[in-house]
């Protein structure tokens, strides 16, 4: 939506996904978990690239810079709904033209917010992460445990 902040954007999408699924799968014990991830470059939202040209542009803009990755989760169980957002700061290496061509040839970028996958070959383009790696990957485990607990599902990491 026009004028929406990256945090509001990612929260809205996660909530909409969860509500859409919950409407089709009604039940007191049904647990719906939905999420969305966005890359925030100084307030600009980088979602999934529509093609290789957009992926190239995104990665060129990220090269040598720090950006933020926001992952929102929405959990619904019966009448309860919990929303959480976790963020991490990611600094990319200075990406050479050769590295850019190599990475785009992998095709890994095509369905990833910001056009890279930290957990895959795109990890070679990342210099450092401040925050949870699982947030950047798209499923922040600590935030998920918090949201599940808020909905009466007593899950903790390590169980």
From TrEMBL:
The keyword Ubl conjugation belongs to this UniProt entry's keyword annotation: no
Cofactor(s) required, per the database record: a divalent metal cation
Gene Ontology molecular-function annotations: nucleoside triphosphate diphosphatase activity
Keyword line: Hydrolase
PANTHER family: BIFUNCTIONAL DTTP/UTP PYROPHOSPHATASE/METHYLTRANSFERASE PROTEIN-RELATED (PTHR43213), BIFUNCTIONAL DTTP_UTP PYROPHOSPHATASE_METHYLTRANSFERASE PROTEIN-RELATED (PTHR43213:SF5)
NCBIfam families in UniProt: maf (TIGR00172)
Protein name per its UniProtKB record: Unannotated protein
The species this protein was found in: freshwater metagenome
């Amino acid at each position: 939506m026009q004028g929406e902040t990256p945090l509001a954007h990612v929260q809205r999408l996660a909530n909409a996904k969860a509500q859409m699924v919950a409407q089709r799968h009604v039940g007191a014990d049904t647990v719906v978990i939905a999420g969305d991830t966005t890359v925030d470059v100084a307030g600009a939202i980088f979602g999934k690239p529509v093609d290789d040209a957009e992926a190239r542009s995104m990665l060129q803009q990220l090269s040598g810079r720090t950006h933020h990755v926001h992952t929102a989760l929405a959990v619904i169980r019966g009448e309860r709904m919990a929303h959480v957002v976790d963020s991490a700061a990611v600094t990319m290496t200075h990406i050479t033209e050769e590295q850019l061509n190599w990475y785009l040839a992998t095709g890994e970028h095509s369905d990833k917010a910001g056009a890279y996958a930290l957990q895959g070959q795109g990890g070679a383009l990342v210099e450092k992460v401040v925050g949870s790696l699982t947030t950047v990957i798209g499923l922040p485990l600590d935030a998920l445990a918090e949201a599940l607990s808020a909905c009466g599902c007593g899950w903790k990491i390590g169980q």
